[in-house]
């Protein structure tokens, strides 16, 4: 009896191996922060949002190794958005309060349904402003909603937004080209590359702006770039069953 053949071409296996190498580094980095006090509100937020990237990468790897390719794609967009947010927090001090304000606006659509709810929401916002000014006086308080595109621009990652993010939004929004399988051939071999990129980006941010214990990441970045250079030569992944 023939052994079951892997569905992934060799290049995808190498991408997955790279992600597996990075996962314990990411976990150790987060654990190393322990109860260390962050230097400012931005680095505190960065450490928290890094957990989202780690969880997305961990789930992605588990699903990919279980040959659940289609569902694994749904974890790429949140990882990208978390990278945009964490990076923006470190590059632009406007980000933090505007992000909080944007979430407050969205919450109002759910909970501020009458005059009493709107009054309570307004009081909450005023309290949030006072607390933010007290605890983070170096950060501006600006009540202006943020969109993901602007966050990516703040982060200096607009090209990733215009490219990968727009593509993976199609999977989470159930676009016709995604649910019909029309995007599989062009994304299958790029999925793990994108997730590895998210992990390396977040680790670099943690290394630069927090006391997290992280080794030299240059070899991992070089390996990712080398593998990326072979994507166009890669055969498509074999799908054995409906996912």
**Mean pLDDT, all residues:** 92
Structural class: mainly alpha
Strand tally, please?
Answer: 0
Overall geometry comes to globular
**Estimated radius of gyration:** 20 Å
Q: What fraction, in percent, of the residue positions are helical? A: over 70%
Strand residue percentage = under 5%
Order of helices and strands: HHHHHHHHHHH
Sequence stretches where pLDDT stays below 50 over 5 or more residues: none
Question: Any idea how many domains?
Answer: 1
Number of helices: 11
- Could you state the oligomeric state of the chains shown? single chain
Main beta-sheet annotation: none
Kindly, what is the distance between the CA atoms of the first and last residues, rounded to a whole number of angstroms?
Answer: 26 Å
TL;DR?
The chain is mostly helical and 243 residues long. The chain contains 11 helices and no strands.
Description of the molecule:
The protein has 243 residues and is mostly helical. The chain has one domain. Helix content is 70%, strand content 0%. The protein contains 11 helices and no strands. The chain has helices spanning 10-33, 41-65, 69-72, 76-91, 95-111, 115-135, 148-155, 158-172, 176-179, 184-209, 218-228. Helix 1 (10-33) runs antiparallel to helix 2. The longest helix is centred in the last third of the chain and has 26 residues, at 184-209. The model has no long low-confidence stretch (mean pLDDT 92).
């Amino acid at each position: 009896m023939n052994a079951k053949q892997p569905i992934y071409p060799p290049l995808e296996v190498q991408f997955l191996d790279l992600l597996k190498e990075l996962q314990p580094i990411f976990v150790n980095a987060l654990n190393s922060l322990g109860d260390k006090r962050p230097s400012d509100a931005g680095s505190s937020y960065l450490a928290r949002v890094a957990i989202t990237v780690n969880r997305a990468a961990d789930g992605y790897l588990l699903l990919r190794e279980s040959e659940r390719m289609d569902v694994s794609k749904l974890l790429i967009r949140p990882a990208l958005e978390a990278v945009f947010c964490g990076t923006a927090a470190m590059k632009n001090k406007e980000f933090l309060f505007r992000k909080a304000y944007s979430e407050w606006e969205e919450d109002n659509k759910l909970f501020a349904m009458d005059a009493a709810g709107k009054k309570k929401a307004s009081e909450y916002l005023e309290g949030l402003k006072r607390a933010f000014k007290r605890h983070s006086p170096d950060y501006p308080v600006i009540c202006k909603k943020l969109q993901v595109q602007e966050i990516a621009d703040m982060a200096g990652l607009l090209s990733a937004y215009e490219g990968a993010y727009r593509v993976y939004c199609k999977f989470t929004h159930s676009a016709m080209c995604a649910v019909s399988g029309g995007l599989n051939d062009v994304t299958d071999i790029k999925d793990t590359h994108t997730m590895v990129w998210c992990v390396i980006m977040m680790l670099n941010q943690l290394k630069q702006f927090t006391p997290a214990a992280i080794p030299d990441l240059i070899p991992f970045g070089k390996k990712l770039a080398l593998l990326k250079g072979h994507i166009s030569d890669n055969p498509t992944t074999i799908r054995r069953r409906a996912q």
